[in-house]
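assembly run, all chains below
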Amino acid sequence: MTQLLDLDEVGGRVERTELPGGLRVLTETMPGVLSATLGIWVDVGSRDETPAVAGSSHFLEHLLFKGTTTRSALEIATAMDAVGGEMNAFTAKEHTCFYANVLASDLPLAVGLLADLVTDATNTAADLESERTVVLEEIAMRDDEPADAVHDLFSETLFGDTPLGRSVLGTVASIEGLTRDDVDGWYRQRYAMPRMVVTAAGRVDHQQVLDLVTAAFGDRLNGDGGPAPLRLGEQGATSPARSTGLIARRTEQTHLLLGTPGLGRLDERRYAAAVLDAAVGGGMSSRLFQEIREKRGLVYSVGSALTHYAGAGAFSVYAGCSKKRVPEVLRLIRAGLDGVAADGLTDEEVARARGQLKGGMVLGLEDTGSRMSRLGKSELSYGEYLPVREVLARLDAVDEQQVREVATELFGRPTCLAVVGPYRESDLDRL
Amino acid sequence: MTQLLDLDEVGGRVERTELPGGLRVLTETMPGVLSATLGIWVDVGSRDETPAVAGSSHFLEHLLFKGTTTRSALEIATAMDAVGGEMNAFTAKEHTCFYANVLASDLPLAVGLLADLVTDATNTAADLESERTVVLEEIAMRDDEPADAVHDLFSETLFGDTPLGRSVLGTVASIEGLTRDDVDGWYRQRYAMPRMVVTAAGRVDHQQVLDLVTAAFGDRLNGDGGPAPLRLGEQGATSPARSTGLIARRTEQTHLLLGTPGLGRLDERRYAAAVLDAAVGGGMSSRLFQEIREKRGLVYSVGSALTHYAGAGAFSVYAGCSKKRVPEVLRLIRAGLDGVAADGLTDEEVARARGQLKGGMVLGLEDTGSRMSRLGKSELSYGEYLPVREVLARLDAVDEQQVREVATELFGRPTCLAVVGPYRESDLDRL
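ok done. output:
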C-alpha cells in the first residue's frame, strides 16, 4: 500500500493574508522546484448569469487578453512568450481563473501582467466584435466534438432551465446578442477585490507575493462586487429536470452520459462518495471498466465522475460505443449501479479505492499548477484550507457502511440520460 | 529573460547501463520529488507494419494488459489502482511505450508489473476477440473527433501509401482481419531485449532499478528482435504524396491542416526549425495567432507544429473555423509562410522564440514523466543523450540567418492540404 511517511518533504507551507480592500492572497512554498504557478481567481461564473447574457463571464475572460490601458494584446502575449511561460485562463460555472506558470525569477513579470489585464482591461467595442466570432467558433468546436457536447447536454438534462443547466460558453443567440455594455458592465460590477483571490505555489515567498500583488493592484477594483452569489443557499433537487436529452447526429459512436443528482460541495458524505465513484468507475480495476470493457470488449471508454457545486452536484457515467452495443452497455451500467446500491462494495474494493484516491492525490502534489488550483478552490469554494494530511485522514475514515449508504441514496435517485448519436427523440424511451 | 542559473538544482544525474542480453536501462535522479515514473520502451511501431497487418503494434499494446501467465487483467489493474499509481501505454509510428507513475516506494511494484505484462503476456485468442471490438471502437472515436481525424488524414496526404502515411490504429479492415498468429507472432518476434529500453526518472536509484529490472526480466525476451528497422536509411521526400485529402462530413467547423514535408530527426537544422515553428505558430505572440485570431477573430484555434521521424518529417499549420471563413484563413496562412520565406523573421522574434523554447523546456523538467520520456526518446530515436544544457546551448546558437534558410527551404516546398468538413472533392481545388 501507499506509504506516506515522506509527506512532509512535499507538504509546502501555506500562508494566507487578506489585504486592505479585501483581496485574499494564499501562497504555498514547495521545496525542490524552480517554477511558480500564479492564479488570479474571480468569484464569477456562468451560474451568476441570466439567460439573456449567458456566456458573459467566459466572453469576458477572453476579452481581458485583448488589451489594457497600457498594453496591447500583442504586448501581453509577447511578454509571456519571451520567457517561455505558459499563460491561460478558464471559466467554470462558479469561478473564473487567470493563471501563469513561469520560472520563479519571472514571477514579478507574471504578477504584473496578469494583474494588469484583470484590473485595467479596456474592453473596447472593436475588440468585442473581433472576439465574438472567436467565441462562436469555440461553440462550433464544442458542437463538433461529441464527447464534449454530451457533457453540456447532460447538465442541461439534469439541471434543466437553471443557471447550472446552461453551458459556460453561452449559446449562439446569447453571444450574438451581447453588447459592450453587457460585458464591460459585468466586468465593472463583478471584478472587485472582495470577490477575488490570488494564489501562488512553487518557489515563492509569501511576503514577496504580497508586495507584488499590492503594487500591481493598487487601488483598482475597489468596489464591493455587487450582490453576493446566492449559491450557498440553493438546495439541489434530488430528481433530474428531464429524463432524457438528445443531440441527433450521424456519428460513428453513440456518446452517452447516464447520471443522477449528486451531492453539494460541502456535503460531509463527499469523501464516501469519492470512494464509491473510484470503485464503481474510477480506474481500470473499477467494476464498470472490468465488466464493460475488459470482460466484454464493448467500449473503448467507460468511466464515472462526480461533480460538486454549491448545494448541488452530479454523479454520472460516460460511455462511447457503436449504436448496436448501446442497449447492452446501458443494461450493464444500470445493473452495476443497482448492484452496488443493494449490496455495497467489498471491504477490499473500499480499501483499494481509498488507496487509489490517496496515492493519486499525493502524486498530484508535485505539480505547482495543481497546488495553485487547490488553494484557489479551497478559498473560493470551500471557505477553508484543508491540509493534505487532513484530507487523507478523512478518506481513511471512510468505511464500507458509509459507502453503502451514499450508494443507496445516490443510485436510488431517478436517473437521466444524455445522448449524442444517430437517434430520434422517440427512440430514447426504449433505451 | 529567462534565467537558468539554478539549473543544476533540477538537472538530475543520468546513468546508463546495458545489461547482459542487450536491455538498456537509463535513470535520472531528481531531487525534491517523491514519485518515480517508469517506462518500458519497445522499438516497434506502425512504421514497421505492412498494410495487411496495419495496427498490429497498437493492438498488441492493448492486448498485453489482458493477462500474463501469472496475472489476470483484473489483477494487473488492481495492483496499480491499490497504490493510486497511474499506468498506461501508447503506440507511435516508431515506438511503443508502457509506463507508470507511482510513489517512489511503489517502484518495485511498478517494475514487477510492467515487466510481467511486457515479457510474459499470454495473448489468448479469446482476449484478442474481446479486444478487437475495443480497438474498433477506438477507431470510431477518432473518426467522430474531426480534430483527430484531420491529423491522420494529413499524414496520409503527405506520406501517401507508405508506412508513415498509415494510422497507428490501423483500419477497420486490417483490424477485422488480424489473427492471433499475426499479433502474437509480432510480439514473439519484435519484443526482444536488444530492441527495448527501460527508463526511470524521479526519486530513483540506478542500482536499485538495475536489480529490479534484472530480476523482473530474467532470461525472457532473449531473442534478437528480427531484422532491424531500416528507418535510419530512409530519406524523406521533399514533395507531398498528394496535394489534397478530404473527409467529407457535415461538421460545424472545417478542420484543416496545411503543411509541407519537414526535416528528419537527426537533421542539424532542427533547432533552427524549432525556432521558426515557435515564431510562426507556436504561441499567442506568434505571427499566425496574432494575424488570424487576435487581429481578425477568424478562428478559435490556429497553430503550427513540427513532427520528426527518422529521415522524414512534417511542418503543418492547423486551423478550425466555419466554412465561410476558410478562404481567408488559408490565404492568411499562406501569406504568413511566404512572408517568412521571403523576408525571414526579425531579430526580436528570433530572440523571443528562443526564450519561449528554452523556458518551456526548463519548466517541463519538473515533471518526472517528461524526464522519463526524454530519456526513452534519446536512447531509442536519437542514439545519444543530450544534457539539458547542451540543448539550451544549441537553441542559443540559432540566429536569424539560419532561421531564414530553413524557412526558405521548408516553405518553398510544395504544400498539401487535409480537410475534414462539408466539402466535395471538386471543391478542394479552389481552396
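Chain A touches chain B through 89 residues (CB under 8 Å).

Residues 1-6 of chain A have pLDDT under 50 and may be disordered.

not gonna interpret more than that til we talk
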